[in-house]
Amino acid sequence: MILCETLGPPLVRLDDGSVPASLQWHKNLALLVYLARSPKRVRGRDHLIGLLWGDQPEDDARHSLNQAVSTLRNYAGESIETDRTKVRLPRWGARSGRRWEASVTPLARGLELSVVF
Q: pTM value?
């Protein structure tokens, strides 16, 4: 399970309490939160590249997006779906019986976005 606290300083941790440095990198964190809060949890690759890597040459930006998706998959497995044009977090009840959900929980320090894979 990946837990992501999004108000206050953003923090991503795993259900065992560990805080992987690669998930704390601001672009990986931004990609995870943005997809989780997007309608239908899907965005076009070109949109994500423009949003997160718009200052880079196109080939470098595409590579950076692929690297970020790969990093997220290291912790979430194949539940992050991609094709040539889109990146998607599955809605509840992903394929292969893998459980995925997102919920927003009010906490004393803000809101917690829990992304469970």
A: 0.76
